[in-house]
Design brief:
It is a single chain. By secondary structure, this protein is α+β, with helices and mostly antiparallel strands. The chain contains 8 helices and 5 strands; from the N terminus they run H-H-E-E-H-E-E-E-H-H-H-H-H. The protein folds into 2 domains: about 60 residues, no CATH class; about 110 residues, no CATH class. The chain has a 3-stranded antiparallel sheet with strand order 3-4-5. A two-stranded antiparallel sheet has the order 1-2.
Length: about 200
């Protein structure tokens, strides 16, 4: 990857393609103003020359003004939210990708299984560490919808976990309410965490 980036700089591709390369380890994205197809063709040719291979399944052209693209767990592109006049507004932002949200939900499900017999304080602390770490990484942009989805899922799984543990009939919705889960039982609520302003507000 370093050889590719070095060749990119030496070839003056940034100016030629009106583009920037953003990379992390072996993942990278090329942000171009109007020359994305040319930048992709150049990249494929250079990768072949350097003996490297692009992951075709992860390689594509996107018009970021109209559609989203995923990078490092985030989904970048157009997002929609209601403004102060209750009108839907489109803004360019970033949010946790669907894959990132699903991966976290999978970890929550694997933790809150019936065979987990650890004391509740240990289970809660383990759960909160995972939630806090995930939310800290995805605290930029517009994560509210993803945070809300995770919170709902966590409440459902925690409620089922506690209902089984305490042998409560049914789904346990009456005993393990929102306040019982987040206040009495101490489960983190992502929507209540302090966070930075959305990217579109900072522009």
């Amino acid at each position: 990857m370093n050889r590719f980036l070095k060749h990119w700089r030496r070839s003056g591709c940034g100016e030629e393609f009106r583009a920037h390369v953003v990379s992390y380890a072996d993942d990278f994205v090329i942000l171009s103003r109007g020359c994305a197809a040319e930048a992709l063709a150049w990249t494929k040719a250079v990768m072949t020359k350097l003996g490297l291979t692009l992951n075709e399944a992860k390689t594509s052209l996107k018009d970021a003004r109209k559609e989203r693209f995923n990078f490092l767990g985030y989904s970048f592109g157009p997002h929609y939210a209601y403004n102060s006049k209750s009108r839907m507004r489109m803004h360019m932002s970033a949010s946790p990708s669907k894959k990132s949200v699903q991966q976290l939900k999978t970890k929550v499900r694997e933790l809150l299984v019936p065979k987990n017999t650890d004391p509740w304080p240990e289970v809660r602390d383990d759960l909160n560490r995972r939630l806090r770490g995930w939310s800290s990484y995805f605290n930029l942009g517009s994560p509210v919808a993803a945070f809300r989805s995770v919170d709902c899922y966590v409440r459902e799984r925690v409620r089922g976990f506690l209902a089984r543990r305490h042998k409560v009939a049914g789904r346990g919705t009456r005993r393990f309410t929102y306040d019982e889960i987040h206040q009495t039982r101490g489960v983190l609520c992502l929507e209540r965490l302090p966070r930075t302003a959305p990217l579109w507000v900072l522009r």
